[in-house]
Amino acid sequence: MLTHNLGYPRIGSQRELKKASEKYWSGQLTLAELQATARRIAQHNWQLQQEAGLDLIPCNDFSYYDQVLDTSLMVGAIPRRYTPVLSENPQNTALDLYFAMARGYQRNGLDVTAMEMTKWFDTNYHYLVPEFTADQEFRLFSEHIFEQFIHARNTLNTTPKPVLLGPVSYLLLGKEKGEGFHRIELLKQLLPVYVEVLTRLHQYGATWVQLDEPYLALDLTAAEKEAYLFAYAKLARSCPGLKLLVATYFEGLRDNAALAVSLPISALHVDLVRAPEQLAAVLPLVPQWLSLSLGVVDGRNIWKNDYQASLVLIEKAVAALGTERVLLAPSCSLLHSPCDLDLETNDATLTPEIKNWLAFAKQKLREVGELRQIADHGDQNLLHQNQQALESRRKSDRIHRPHIKERTAAVTEADARRRSSFAVRQALQQAQLRLPLFPTTTIGSFPQTEDIRQLRARFKKGELTAEQYNEALQNATVDVIRWQEEVGLDVLVHGEFERNDMVEYFGELLDGFAFTKNGWVQSYGSRCVKPPILYGDIHRPADMTVAWSTFAQALTRRYVKGMLTGPVTILQWSFVRDDQPRATTALQIALAIREEVQALEKAGIQLIQIDEPAIREGLPLRHSDWPAYLAWAVRAFRVAASGVRDETQIHTHMCYSEFNEILPAIAELDADVITMETSRSQMELLAAFADFQYPNQIGPGVYDIHSPRVPSTEEMVGLLEKAQALLPAENLWVNPDCGLKTRKWPETEAALRNMVQAARQVRAGKR
């Protein structure tokens, strides 16, 4: 059996790419130095996979920012607004154009907004959404893929496997800019570029090329199915000597199985972690020319593989197809896994017992190799070691707590309902809070400067006492409260300087979580997160946020929001246990958050925000599975939020996802105020909320915090005018798209001053 990998983390085991990219953007690093860092990371990844014994090693899985944006640049799908980035500044390179598309561009009189960003299927990874027009033209623009192939070939002294986003999924991941056409109609114009790319790769010596087509695991229209048949017939005819491997992942093929196996390709990859049951359905359909790649090692979670369970699947495939037509691989790209478990040393929470249950990207490569060794040679020692680790986890008393399970089972429907309807609550809250029309606020976090990060690092190293650390954080909180008062924000936040991450912070204060020191994964661009490991039953031993919220509230007469992360987001953004239903785990977290909400209310905090940016992200890929997920996800939020008086205003925040199709579920959350990302899409989302007649209050983001550009007052006034044309003025809030943690202070100050001024102008027009 051949072994291969679909992709490897590109951030570097010490986040080298993040650090180099941010220095390049700030002018502290040259282009040559950035490219040298990128080459070192890619070369290290290739060599690591070669040492693991993989037969087919991926290349072109490395990206400076995002693989979908890479594809847009490769095929020349560059929106016209970015043309001046190169034409008006000869010093700019194609990489500067690339970063302008990702982050926006504001320099030398040129002001260009970034491309829209949204979630990559049901992951916490974000991609840049391609933009297509009816007269869209495609041409080979970037040759990055050829440079990567040649570099990998020379490094490895063997032939690597280039990875491409497939043409049909690429189009479906995009958006139409304009009416009167569907983006899938652009396939005929796009395919010649793919043919040119594949032809040149073959000329350079490529034998296998991986084409990622995750949309094959989604619900497809008749036109989209026809597009697959048309696209791969053309690619196969144009490149007859090249072996094409089409990769699907994140879900089973289901009704698309017959379509997928009929494509004129050499191999099909299926995700047997998310959908092991699909193997029985796919095997009888596989034609004689087709090999099957089995995704048996979980590319998205960190638990050790169950070799015995994987071997059952492997043996079924070998019995049906023969050894030579079976390939072994992780379920999906290892982009979603931390780099190396061996880097985790001397961590009090990641005990040797827990560490023995885990596998990161490097270890997952080894698991693929060991599975082949057991399947080919019957290595019982490897199998026995694996089963011992799994048995240790099953029996551990760290995991199961009967009293928590009993409490979770006792939750009633009354626990998931506010006392009164929103209309009643809104009147009571208006009478108590007395906020103006278009009240201004932020989403929660303020910039975590180098001083704050160094402060945290020194505290963790023992260089500061707890008293010294808290005093410094209190000083930062005082400063940010005074600054918000001076700018004129209506509802303030305490800045969250004590928090490293919106999920990790709460995980550290809840029982049932473990943590890594180097378990970073990419969220978008240079943004990396370190998900906690949710391994056991969840319990809240003490208050988590009350002290900071009450400290901040005591500093001002304006309202300060209590800031919490919601149960579904904590679930989604953790490496979650796989030994019980996710719904059960979410409800355990919800009960812990409910206790914190009630503690905040008791302490006098009258506005409490429970962030749920991941609720759309967790939506299953198949529509038929939506109702069950939405039922338990909405219930978890409502359990967390419903234990308070009518006068206490509950906020929630969502961002960077398509919400149109789940508006009834969002309304079912029954949050008094929802804030969300809308600036990159120019308030596009609000039309759906207006058509739905969404009853509660909304804060559509008017400031894109994922870009360093500063929007003008006029720009934000325009967005707010679009908003009030769709929704009642008394139901609108004014806020940025998301938290400001990753931004710099100068741009934050300028943008928020403009935002407050925009709200005042629109408010004055309503008098």
UniProtKB/TrEMBL annotation:
Keywords: Amino-acid biosynthesis, Coiled coil, Metal-binding, Methionine biosynthesis, Methyltransferase, Repeat, Transferase, Zinc. Pathway: Amino-acid biosynthesis; L-methionine biosynthesis via de novo pathway; L-methionine from L-homocysteine (MetE route): step 1/1. One of its GO terms (biological process) is methylation. Its cofactor is Zn(2+). L-homocysteine binds at residues 443-445, 496, 611. One of its GO terms (molecular function) is 5-methyltetrahydropteroyltriglutamate-homocysteine S-methyltransferase activity. The keyword tRNA-binding does not apply. Residues 438-760 form the Cobalamin-independent methionine synthase MetE C-terminal/archaeal domain. Its EC number is 2.1.1.14. Belongs to the vitamin-B12 independent methionine synthase family. NCBIfam families: met_syn_B12ind, PRK05222.1. Catalyzes the transfer of a methyl group from 5-methyltetrahydrofolate to homocysteine resulting in methionine formation. This is 5-methyltetrahydropteroyltriglutamate--homocysteine methyltransferase. It comes from Hymenobacter defluvii. The lineage of its organism: Bacteria, Pseudomonadati, Bacteroidota, Cytophagia, Cytophagales.
